[in-house]
């Protein structure tokens, strides 16, 4: 199959495959592996130039607790997340599943069990879609760097890579997402044989969604540590750390707040994208307490306001950017800053028939003129008890439009 034939085939099925993903909005990223034992994030082997033999000793020492993935999946579910993506092999080369490609894996070493299988079972138990992260980059494999200099090494490494992906796509039931990462050291899709590998993955998993990190655009873009909507029509997912570290790192003490995560979700929903928020579990698999602390109120907030976040949304453009999400003739006004008894909104050019507090359905008294809409008799404090971010539902005559601009003054 040529690259063109492959891409045409993928394009033809994209809308159907992506339907659930476009409505899911919110997922949990999980970075967990040998590196958690050192607590200096997932790049520690590289950044501290730890010799392979020394780093390998972590494999025998790693003894995670029983089924920690159930804790993650329950937290994800309770936090309003609809899917998960877990690292099956990060750059350090340690495989968390029962692979035949190398004995450097969780079954043959310390854990003595298939951690990917436990993760997939936990996702199914809690009704979450299953994403598997796979790093092409591999610091442990003897050909992981040599593959860029030597054709025989490249062949061996690509056979290893193909074997790993084949196992992940074959042995764990339905897989929803293949999340590639670490596309070094080979220079392009051809050198990585990405078309062949992805075509094989899709043959094994016909509904599979694949990200853009194997030198093929595939199904969606992956802005990292920035919530930046893609151009119209391109699906995208912002992958974000919770505490500015992917792997477990207790010294990374700056945690994003519940309100920051809500703000990121608002940008994603307004821009027709998704948020993949990361946790880096401790060596035993426990979730850092700080993450649980921020996710608990978020789950309650989403239970109240999910209508403004999940499902098919329209792209918010122009003056309405930054504070609204839209679905057809309905606009949702997000209020992270509370105005007090009255809220005046300028430039709404669409007739508004009804305004309610989304969380309770309580109607709001309002007046609408040509240039102003005034929401009246509001409570003095934000009515949202979870994070102080109230959302109001505006039911309009037509798709909502707001015209502002620095030139307008009241004469
Ligand atoms: O190098 C990795 C990093 O460790 C982490 O896995 C992120 C997650 O998107 N991806 C790479 C950096 O872009």
Protein described:
With 411 residues, the chain is α/β, with parallel strands linked by helices. The protein is built from ten helices and 14 strands. The strands form three sheets. Strands 5-4-3-2-1-7-6 form a seven-stranded parallel sheet, sandwiched between helices. A four-stranded antiparallel sheet has the order 8-9-14-11. It is globular, with a radius of gyration of 24 Å. Residues 42-43, 181-182, 224, 239, 246 line the site of ligand FHN.
Strand content: 15-25%
Continuous helix count:
10
Helix/strand/pairing category: alpha/beta
CATH superfamily of the largest domain: Glycosidases
- What is the CATH fold-level name of the largest domain? TIM Barrel
Summarize the biggest pleated sheet.
Answer: 7 strands, parallel
Low-confidence stretches: none
Number of strands: 14
**Proportion in helices:** 25-40%
Question: How would you concisely characterize the structure shown here?
Answer:
By secondary structure, the chain is an alpha/beta fold. The protein has helices at residues 3-24, 44-47, 52-61, 68-78, 115-125, 151-170, 189-192, 194-204, 258-270, 289-305; strands at 26-30, 83-89, 129-135, 177-181, 209-210, 237-240, 274-279, 324-327, 330-335, 343-346, 352-357, 365-368, 372-376, 390-396. It folds into two domains: 3-308, Glycosidases (TIM Barrel, Alpha-Beta Barrel), CATH 3.20.20.80; 324-396, Sandwich (Immunoglobulin-like).
């Amino acid at each position: 199959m040529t690259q063109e034939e492959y891409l045409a085939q993928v394009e033809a099925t994209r809308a159907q495959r992506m339907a659930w993903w476009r409505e899911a909005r919110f997922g949990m990223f999980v970075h967990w592996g040998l590196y958690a034992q050192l607590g200096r994030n997932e790049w520690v082997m590289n950044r501290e130039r730890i010799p392979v033999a020394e780093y390998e000793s972590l494999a025998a020492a790693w003894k995670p607790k029983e089924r920690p993935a159930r804790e993650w999946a329950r937290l994800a579910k309770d936090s309003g997340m609809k899917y998960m993506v877990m690292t099956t092999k990060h750059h350090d080369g340690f495989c968390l599943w029962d692979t035949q490609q190398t004995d450097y894996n969780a079954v043959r070493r310390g854990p003595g069990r298939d951690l990917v299988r436990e993760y997939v079972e936990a996702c199914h138990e809690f009704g979450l879609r299953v994403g598997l992260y796979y790093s092409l980059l591999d610091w442990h494999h003897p050909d992981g760097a040599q593959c860029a200099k030597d054709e025989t090494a490249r062949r061996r490494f690509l056979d290893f890579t193909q074997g790993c992906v084949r196992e992940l796509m074959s042995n764990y039931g339905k897989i929803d997402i293949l999340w590639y990462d670490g596309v070094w050291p080979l220079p392009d899709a051809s050198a990585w044989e990405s078309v062949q590998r992805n075509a094989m993955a899709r043959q094994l998993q016909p509904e599979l969604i694949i990200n853009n990190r194997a030198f093929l655009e595939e199904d969606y873009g992956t802005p990292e540590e920035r919530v930046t909507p893609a151009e119209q029509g391109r699906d995208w997912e912002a992958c974000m750390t919770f505490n500015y570290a992917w792997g477990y790192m207790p010294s990374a003490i700056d945690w994003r707040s519940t309100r920051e995560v809500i703000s990121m979700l608002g940008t994603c929903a307004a821009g027709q994208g998704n948020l993949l928020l990361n946790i880096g579990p401790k060596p035993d698999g426990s979730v850092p307490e700080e993450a649980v602390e921020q996710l608990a109120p978020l789950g309650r907030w989403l239970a109240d306001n999910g209508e403004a976040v999940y499902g098919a949304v329209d792209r918010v453009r122009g003056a309405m950017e930054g504070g609204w999400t839209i679905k057809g003739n309905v606009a949702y006004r997000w209020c992270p800053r509370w105005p007090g008894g009255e809220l005046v909104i300028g430039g709404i050019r669409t007739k508004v028939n009804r305004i309610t507090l989304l969380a309770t359905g309580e109607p709001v008294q309002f007046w609408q003129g040509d240039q102003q809409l005034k929401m009246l008799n509001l409570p003095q404090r934000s009515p949202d008890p979870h994070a102080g971010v109230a959302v109001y539902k505006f039911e309009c005559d037509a798709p909502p439009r707001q015209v502002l601009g620095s030139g307008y003054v009241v004469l």
